[in-house]
Amino acid sequence: MAETISHYRISRKLGAGGMGEVYLAEDLRLGRQVALKFLPASYQYDPDRRARFLKEARAASALRSPYIAAIYDIGEQDGMMFLVMEYVEGELLATRIERSAIVARDAIEIAEQIADALDEAHQLGIVHRDVKSANLILTPRGLVKMLDFGLAKVSQVQGKSNSSDYTTPLGQQTAAGIVLGTVTYMSPEQSLGRAIDGRTDIFSLGVVLYEMLTGRLPFTGASATEIIDNILHSEPLAVSRFNTNTPAELERIVRKCLEKDRDRRYQSARELAIDLRNLKRDLDSGAISTSALMTQGYAGPSVRRTRSRRAIDSLAILPLVNESRDPETEYLADGITESIINNLSQLSKLRVMARSTVFRYKGRDIDPIATGIELGVRAVLIGRMLSRGDTLIIKVELVDASDGSHLWGENYNRPMAEIFAVEAEISSVISEKLRLKLDSAQKKKLAKRHTNKTEAYQLYLQGRFYWNKRTTESLKRGIDYFNQAIAADPAYALAYTGLADSYNILASYSALPPDEAFPKARAAATCALQLDERLPEAHASMAFVTFGYSWDFEQADREFKRALELSPGYAVAHQWYALYLAAMCRMDEAITEIRRAEQLDPLSLPIITNKGWILYLARRHDEARDTLMKALELDQDFVLAHRRLGQVYEARQMYGEARREYEKCLQLAPADVESLAALGHAYGASGEVERARESIAKLSDSSPCRYVPAYLIAVIHISLGEADTAFAWLEKAFEERYGFLAYMNVSPVFDPLRNDERLDHLASRVGLAHSVG
Asked: Measuring CA to CA, which residue among 261, 264, 269 is closest to residue 252?
């Protein structure tokens, strides 16, 4: 080997393998240390392989993750092809594992960084194909660096198998290409030479995680053939057999990574990273501990006895299964579930999963242990409901999610008129079985009845059933039921809050003009508070009105705080308060508050989407994008998440991507004027003036048929640089009291007007402080 290659001076050899030799060198032009990887001679003599390498190395050089060793250059001299890579000082993970297994907390941290790196690569359609502990370096600063992305495979379709992307079965490789250490990390599909995608890297990461925790590999053998046979047909021994301090949730994560059927594995590295991040958070916060989550077979009896005496501080109440043949009683099963959730959410000592999260389990076969692990709760309530005429039959069971043990169960066979007593009794017994010590005020909360009239209660439950569907038509149908409930019992405060919430949401959807919807919401919330000043839902409803319409921001703050004081577990109030705090430029508080909402309701699409939007308002665009992608992983058809993601892309000047998101919105909801306006804004911002004007014309054409907020036309004119026209339309939006004006100080949409004193004047009229960038 010559001492100098191109403008790189070789210092010493760092290592070698089947894919070439690596040397430490000095970049004589930039004066920095680099790693040179010289590729096998086969690259020089195979034109197709050479062309693929150049294409894939160029793609890999676009990776910017802090957890990936950067590729600086590719070169050739004297027939030798080489990669110029970032030189990373540190210790190979494989070397670290040789000394001893790695404690769970550190292994989670390392795996999370690897998953983040893979997520970025997979988003660009790059599959590493050789994730292993010998390709990972632990730096002195505690970072992980992945090597050899320059030899990765570029897929044609991001996130999907590429029919041309086949690995070579081992029997067809040359001796130089066989590295037995690598075979042990291969996924089943890779070892068979089948089409691969990002999920093969996830399997390999599962092997690395298993290796870190146990100090051994999950699949071994005397030959490559035997190793592959074990990968294909054998299950690895449980991690906890070798490391008894492994949390059960971490054991589950490893098992899911190592599923032989890739459709049963994590479907994305992001999904895996989220689970690792959540587990790390729970370990750090003390919400769970390693000893409390030992796998059942390896935690001794003394551990289980100690655990059984502790109060259980988190609970998921899963939707009651409606065993009645009449689908018209579905609202009853859902309503009873929601009522118990709302009752117990008022207890400050108990974290209760919110409705929108637990209802994602509706219709599924439930495994209480798996569900508890997925939701991060200690106990799970499951049950069934049967309605026969005027008789209500409810069967419930409370399960300890850490070991599946039965905590309590009961069968209720009562007249429908006793539904209130049944709900109160279930709530009270649950608190007792969870060993919560309640004071007299908390016991009074659980026993409280909002109405004594069964008919009114059933009408209210039907109203909430349609309110939860969150479409314009279902909200209007819900309003009809809430009005009927109020007619049946004019003193029914909760029914008034249902009415207020319905009008609030219709206004926020731009389905009704603000001056039509918000006064009705305010009147209903006022009635509810006059009937029951301690009703948290009523305070939250009033806060929404005063924030989004009255622009009385001090009162809104007081109302939100009062709602959360009365019901700390009310996820919707945490979400709405976070949006208020963002509008007030209190971004750190807003992010903290939306995270609280997410902890209570981790699978709520509105909460996750609003978290993404708040991060966008805080100019934390990468985090906003990742959060909104998480929402779309839950539901690819959620219009608001697509629209918010489009706004994030616009802020990053990725106008093509933004337009595609807005076009997706209009495919899903062709009459959505907010998405039409967002598309018009993207056209204007990217210089497509005529298309932006076409969007304005379409909005104008829609106005005779439905409400089109003046604000939407204003923002398109802002994107076109037409400040005078934009302010004329903003004045109309002010007269309409359009709620989004509350965000003018923080929304990037208003950035082109930041130096215009008219924006400060408008902000002061809305009640905001001076505009800020």
From this structure: 264
Neighbours of 750 (CB within 10 A): 23
Contacts of 464 (CB under 8 A, 6+ apart): 331, 334, 335, 338, 478, 498
What are the residues whose beta carbons fall under 8 Å from the beta carbon of 555, sequence distance 6 or more?
543, 546
For residue 169, how many other CB atoms are within 10 A of its CB? 13
Stated pTM of the model: 0.57
Can you list the positions of beta strands (E) in 45-111?
71-77, 80-86, 91-92
Label the pairing between strands 314-317 and 321-322: unpaired
Q: What is the structure's pLDDT at 46?
A: 66
Closest CA to 30 of 87, 76, 79: 87
Q: By mean pLDDT, which of 10-19, 205-214, 477-486, 741-750 is the weakest?
A: 10-19
Strand-pair partners of 294: 247
Instruction: Mark 549-583 as b/e (b = at least 16 C-beta within 10 Å).
Output: bbbebeebbebbebbbebbbbbbbbbbbbbbbbbb
* Residues 6+ positions from 236 with CB-CB distance below 8 Å: 210, 218, 219, 258
Which contacts of 665-674 are long-range, i.e. CB under 8 A and separated by 24 or more positions? 665/639, 668/637, 668/639, 668/642, 669/639, 671/702, 671/706, 672/639, 673/510, 673/699, 673/702, 673/706, 673/708, 673/709, 673/712, 674/510, 674/643, 674/712
Contact 513, 708 (CB under 8 A): no
Secondary structure letter of residue 372 according to DSSP: H
Sort 167 into a burial class: Cβ within 10 Å, 0-12 / 13-18 / 19+.
Answer: buried
pLDDT per position as a tens digit, 337-391? 988 888 888 887 788 998 888 888 888 878 888 888 888 898 999 988 888 778 8
Which residues fall within 8 angstroms of residue 719, CB to CB, at 6 or more apart? Answer: 680, 681, 682, 683, 684, 685, 692, 749, 752
The Cα angle at residue 758 between residues 757 and 762, in degrees rounded to 5? 120
- Burial-class residue 177 by CB neighbours within 10 Å (0-12, 13-18, 19+): middle
Q: How far apart are CA 660 and CA 668, in angstroms?
A: 12
Handedness of CA 621, 627, 629, 631 (dihedral sign): negative
Question: Could you read off the pLDDT of 557-614 as tens digits, one per residue?
Answer: 999 999 999 988 889 999 999 999 999 999 999 999 999 999 888 888 899 999 999 9
Q: Cα–chain-centroid distance for residue 51?
A: 39
Given a cut of 60, is residue 180 above it in pLDDT?
no
pLDDT digits (tens, 9 = 90+) for 600-651: 888 888 999 999 999 999 999 999 999 999 999 888 999 999 999 999 999 9
Contact 570, 345 (CB under 8 A): yes
From residue 594, how far is each of 421, 501, 502, 548 by CA, in Å?
Answer: 34, 19, 22, 18
Q: Which runs of E-coded beta strand occur in 282-427?
A: 314-317, 321-322, 351-352, 379-388, 391-400, 406-415
Do 548 and 517 form a contact (C-beta atoms < 8 A)?
no
Which amino acid is residue 262, in one-letter code? R
Spatial distance between the Cα atoms of 659 and 665, rounded to a whole number of angstroms: 10
Judge contact between 549 and 540, C-beta under 8 A: no
Cα maximum dimension of the chain: 93
